[in-house]
Design goal:
The structure is a single chain. By secondary structure, the protein is an alpha+beta fold. A hairpin with a 6-residue loop joins strand 6 and strand 7. The longest helix has 27 residues. The N terminus and C terminus are likely disordered.
Length: about 140
């Protein structure tokens, strides 16, 4: 059983690991209070310290984590990162919400044919779903 609630997304993620720097090729898969996972073209070493950034989030989300696991999946890898700084854990709450809003925007376009701006999607999502968004007491477990 996971310690944190995870939220799927397909937001672009960049990372820096020693001499390996990526920009735009990796995609966030899940975000949680304690870490995140993403899809990568690169096989990363478990235990390696990695700097990540999510440029879509404003202000840009940046954090340092440790590679917890890396599993091959078809022609890429799914990588799990655990945040090293408690402040990054709390800032991940914002990332979780942005992921939900982006998914809502895509769902509305697919199901209703309405093209929403990020701000319009955020306003609708907040009105419909913010009260059900898990509280920090639920994600701290």
């Amino acid at each position: 059983m996971r310690n944190f609630i995870r939220h799927p997304s397909s937001i672009t993620i960049d990372f820096n690991l020693e001499e390996l720097v990526t920009e735009g090729g990796e995609h966030l898969k899940n975000v949680s209070f304690g870490g995140l996972s993403f899809i990568s073209r690169h096989n990363l070493t478990v235990g390696a310290v990695i700097s990540i950034k999510i440029p879509l989030i404003q202000p840009m989300f940046q954090a340092v984590g440790r590679v917890s696991w890396c599993h091959p999946e078809n022609n890429h890898f799914e990588v799990g990162i655990k945040f090293l700084d408690k402040n990054d854990m709390f800032r991940a709450r914002m990332v979780e919400q942005v992921c939900h809003i982006e998914q809502y925007r895509r769902d509305v376009l697919k199901k209703e044919g309405r093209k929403l701006s990020g701000e319009e999607a955020a306003m609708e999502w907040i009105q419909k779903y913010a009260p059900q968004f898990p509280g920090s007491e639920e994600t701290a477990g």
